[in-house]
Amino acid sequence: MPADRTASVKGSRLADQAWLLMMLPPLFWAGNAVLGRAVAGSVPPIGLAFWRWFLGMLVVLPFAWPHLRHDITPILARWKSVLLLGTLGIGIYNTLQYIALNTTTALNCVMLQSSMPVMIVLMSLVLFRDRIGAMQGVGIAVSLVGAMTLISHGDPGTLLGLELNAGDVWMLAAVVIYAAYTTLLRRRPAIHGLSFVVVTFAIGAVELLPFYVWESLGGHPVQASGITLLAVGYTVLFPSIAAYLCFNRAVELLGPNTAGLAIHLVPVFGSLLAILFLGEQPHLYHGIGIALIAAGILLATRRRA
């Protein structure tokens, strides 16, 4: 793990709060799948992804510039790793997710996304021979059951009755891509988090540009409208800048297998937001699902206590 000029300012009290950093990204991601589904058909997927990363880069650049000037040497020295991480985590992952949401439901996407912690463990095993302890394995399994409880509203028949389609294949591919990104974060250079974010955002935007032009010329340009501005603004500030800064640092502090359990908090926050802002009624399955996820995370991280 990078230990010098790392994902955030070393010694910063907020930057070292691993559990807070782990919980914030799923809070922001909880709205991403719902928003992506809501604007499907109104905002083209590649256009949404391009503007998300391009504008995110512009917003972060002024804050990253003082660090970037010092970090350019280690970035160039590890350019292959930086390019790969930017391609996987920025250029490909969310683009596939937005494409998936054009042809499948937010429920299907969240269900498939919940398999990501398991995928991260498998990636860590295959790529780095990481061994998983029995308690960690039990914790991941318990947390997964909790996530499925929330997603299915406590009815396993809901999951059995889901119809899979092409969009689900895109989403499964996205899950594999992000699991690889999370696992490979240990190969990132020892640079400031803002430097890493602005460079990887730039890589993603550049890679998406020709596909965005192709999508626009093919009759699906991004139309300036209130819903477009809302969608792009939310994705730039929260699922992009804030979530990536927090998640990258959480992976550094906790390791990919533990930090990856944050994905199971997405349906937790999704349920809580629906209760708070959409007037949905809390049910027993909410309590059971959240309790199982909390227990699973505690079991998986018990060895760190």
From TrEMBL:
GO terms for cellular component: plasma membrane. InterPro entries: AA-Vitamin_Transporters, EamA_dom, EmrE-like. Keywords: Cell membrane, Membrane, Transmembrane, Transmembrane helix. Coiled coil: none annotated. The keyword tRNA-binding does not apply. Residues 20-150, 166-301 form the EamA domain. This is EamA family transporter. It comes from Azospirillum palustre.
